[in-house]
Design a protein that fits this description.
mainly beta; 6 strands; binds copper (II) ion; Plastocyanin-like domain-containing protein; oxidoreductase activity; copper ion binding
Length: 118
């Protein structure tokens, strides 16, 4: 894998071609992306797809129907889950309002709730 898929937008279908330059089988899972009726791009090896063999490639079509924010992708083969990984940033649809105000509110220390560390 040469680079991260990078930025996308809610509602996009992102095509990601993975070419396996390694010496072991690999698949890629898009962690937190629901992909309804699109299980062949979900990544679990031998469950939703055959692994990509060394020297082989596979193009994932990742449907970002509901997701917004920063999610991540990772290898989903054998014990390789934490070895190959990266971020995918999903922006809201164009023109969508943000769910919070950007207006900064000054809060006095006394008004702040205590944070309990256990
Ligand atoms: Cu995952």
């Amino acid at each position: 894998m040469g680079s991260s898929p990078g930025d996308a937008r809610k509602g996009n279908v992102v095509g990601v071609k993975v070419h396996n330059h390694g010496d072991r089988n690999v698949t890629i899972h898009w962690h937190g992306v629901k992909q309804p009726c699109n299980q062949w791009s979900d990544g679990p090896e031998y469950i939703t797809q055959c692994p990509i063999k060394p020297g082989g490639s596979f193009t994932y079509h990742v449907i970002l129907s509901e997701e917004e924010g920063t999610l991540w992708w990772h290898a989903h083969t054998g014990f390789d889950h934490a070895t190959l990984h990266g971020a995918i940033v999903i922006h809201p649809r164009r023109g969508a309002s943000f769910p919070f105000s950007f207006q900064e509110k000054k809060t006095k220390v006394e008004e702040m709730a205590p944070i309990i560390l256990a």
